[in-house]
Amino acid sequence: MDREIRHIPVLLQPLLEVVRPRAGMVIIDCTVGLGGHSSEFLKRVSPGGRLIGIDFDPGNLELARAKLKVTGARFDLFHNNFAALPTVMTEAGVERADAIVADLGVASPLQRPGAIGRAPADSRAA
Ligand SMILES: C[S@@+](CC[C@H](N)C(=O)[O-])C[C@H]1O[C@@H](n2cnc3c(N)ncnc32)[C@H](O)[C@@H]1O
């Protein structure tokens, strides 16, 4: 049975107020998850901006990719631990970012029956 996997980012508005994403910005989302925060960043950094996303759950990255593509803006996703941020930045070809964010909460899909087998949350800092 197919179940829709959704995650509703509850702190989106405060996050947007702090980061203030706007055209031309480079934003790194260390915990892309299902792309809720990243898609809102991406909508706001165009034109000229870029989103770099990291997550160690490949299933989440796949779902996020579909969501981010809809925006038509520039993004690159990396399957990695955010502890490897310097490596990811080198691979992405960026030396600096305007904002680096990490959502260390537990994603709602991980709390649902059947979530076993997905990558567990591991929010250890580098
Ligand atoms: C709360 S969810 C993020 C939800 C996301 N902000 C959104 O709007 O959809 C946390 C995500 O962080 C990822 N994660 C946890 N620890 C990580 C780590 N050390 N490196 C990379 N990703 C990690 C999990 O796989 C999960 O997808």
Explained architecture:
The chain has 4 helices and 4 strands. The termini are far apart. Helix 3 links the parallel strand 2 and strand 3. 30% of the residues are buried. The mean pLDDT is 86. By secondary structure, the protein is of the alpha/beta class. It has a 4-stranded parallel β-sheet, with helices on both faces. S-adenosylmethionine (SAM) binds next to helix 2 and strand 2.
Radius of gyration: 14 Å
Distance between the termini: 38 Å
Question: Mean pLDDT score, rounded?
Answer: 86
What about the largest sheet?
A: 4 strands, parallel
At the fourth CATH level, what is the homologous superfamily of one domain?
Vaccinia Virus protein VP39
Shape designation:
globular
Q: Which second-level CATH architecture of one domain applies?
A: 3-Layer(aba) Sandwich
Fraction of residues in β-strands = 5-15%
**Molecules bound to protein:** S-adenosylmethionine
Class by helix and strand content?
alpha/beta
* N-to-C SSE string, H for helix and E for strand: HEHEHEHE
- Under CATH, the topology of one domain is which? Rossmann fold
Q: Count helical runs.
A: 4
How many strands? 4
Low-confidence stretches: none
Q: Which class of one domain in CATH terms?
A: Alpha Beta
Strand and helix map with partners:
Elements: H1 12-19, E1 26-29, H2 36-45, E2 50-55, H3 58-69, E3 75-79, H4 85-92, E4 99-101
Parallel strand pairs: 1-2, 1-4, 2-3
Residues 7, 9, 31, 33-37, 54-57, 60, 81-82, 103, 105-107, 119, 121-123 line the site of S-adenosylmethionine.
